[in-house]
């Protein structure tokens, strides 16, 4: 049992540092996402717009998925930061592309049309999963 506690003592600070770094990166990415979108999610959510809440929640989860992949596959903290930034930038670009493809989306979100948010969530989560899977290849090449 002593080995378990010793392992915890040695590993817990690293866990906190790595997870805290990933959490901070997620917060920054969400802030950038909120600034990039043509509608004001937080104001709409505060006003009771459930569709805006769905869209924002999908974006947060979609940003977290590739970042979680980076966290799981990184071999060092600088590695996590580098690949985390790459994944978040690519995901934000994918979001912007999705927003451009789904024309009239800002109006539909503001008018609380759930269908628009559901399609938005689906495309954002799909791009997040593809990006997260793609991040495993660079990680394996670094280890191999």
TrEMBL record:
The chain crosses the membrane at residues 15-36, 48-68, 80-102, 114-136. The keyword Cell membrane applies. Keywords: Cell membrane, Membrane, Transmembrane, Transmembrane helix. It comes from the Bacteria. One of its GO terms (cellular component) is plasma membrane. InterPro entries: DUF350 (IPR007140). It is found in: Cell membrane. It is a multi-pass membrane protein. Belongs to the UPF0719 family. PANTHER family: UPF0719 INNER MEMBRANE PROTEIN YJFL. This is DUF350 domain-containing protein.
């Amino acid at each position: 049992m002593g080995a378990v506690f010793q392992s915890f003592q040695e590993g817990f600070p690293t866990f906190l540092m790595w997870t805290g770094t990933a959490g901070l990166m997620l917060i920054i990415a969400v802030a950038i996402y909120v600034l990039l979108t043509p509608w004001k999610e937080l104001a709409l959510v505060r006003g009771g717009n459930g569709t805006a809440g769905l869209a924002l929640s999908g974006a947060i989860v979609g940003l977290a998925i590739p970042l979680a992949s980076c966290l799981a596959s990184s071999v060092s903290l600088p590695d996590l930061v580098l690949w985390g930034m790459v994944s978040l930038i690519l995901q934000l670009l994918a979001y912007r592309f999705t927003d451009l493809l789904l024309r009239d989306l800002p109006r539909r979100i503001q008018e609380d049309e759930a269908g628009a948010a559901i399609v938005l969530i689906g495309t954002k989560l799909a791009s997040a999963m593809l990006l997260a899977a793609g991040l495993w290849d660079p990680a394996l090449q670094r280890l191999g």
